[in-house]
Amino acid sequence: MGVSYFEYQLYMDSGLNFFYVIMGVIGLLNGGRSGGNPGISTNTVRFHLIAIFILLALSAVIGQLLQTYTQAALPFWDAGTTLFSIWATYLLVKHKKENWLYWIVTDGIYVGLYMYKGAYLFAILFVIYTVLSVKGWRDWSKESAYIE
Q: 84 and which of 52, 78, 106, 120 could share a cystine (Cβ 3.0–4.6 Å)?
């Protein structure tokens, strides 16, 4: 929790790492059950448009709650990036190729968020995450071409 919570007042972001640990374990368990290669799949554009609408609406509600009841810095951005990160992680665990597109956009926003807060090392880390997400998208696109 540390730095994100106390120094940068990004309260939702600070708790996100606990979620990552839980989802990582679930991902390992799911991969192990299906022989380690569950296959890559996709969802429809309509599915993602509905998901994005819901995530933006939830971000607005949670951002308003953070703004009203906490000292959170950038409450709407904090809520949005956290919710989209949770969603991208869920899609990753489900082996949905589009998870990488969510990561590319969300990590890119995190770069700007951390630059704005003066957290330059975090910003550099998220530049690296963005590059890795582009690589993930490319790799999964190649692999899914063989599957489909």
A: 106
